[in-house]
Amino acid sequence: MLLWWIGNAIMLFVVLPVVLVLLNRILAPVERIKKTTDEILAHGAVLTGHLDNVPELLAKTDETVHEVAVGATRYVKRVGALLDG
């Protein structure tokens, strides 16, 4: 019976504090990660409001690229004609 009480005392005064310290070392970074991910989610939700007009801007960019490509093609043909002639 004495060994049973010694085992309980060791469990209470040695093993339990070690487990609590290790648990604290795990939970502290988890809490920081949770706080950071909550901030990312909040800022991401704000960011989506700024992305509403992206399709119109991309359409305008496509038009501009097409106009530049047409002008560049015309320029290259003229320069080629000058170099050949």
Strand-helix topology:
Elements: H1 2-49, H2 54-84
Give a summary of the structure in a few sentences:
With about 80 residues, the protein is mostly helical. It has two helices and no strands.
List the main descriptive attributes of the protein structure presented here.
about 80 residues, mainly alpha, 2 helices
Describe the structure.
It is a single chain. The protein folds into two domains: 1-52; 53-85. It is mainly alpha-helical and 85 residues long. The protein has two helices and no strands. The termini are far apart. It is rod-shaped and about 110 Å long. The chain has helices at 2-49, 54-84.
Number of strands: 0
Question: What is the oligomeric state here?
Answer: single chain
- Biggest sheet, open or closed, and with what strands and sense? none
State the secondary-structure class.
mainly alpha
Principal-axes shape call: rod-shaped
Give the topology string: H per helix, E per strand. Answer: HH
> What share of residues is helical?
over 70%
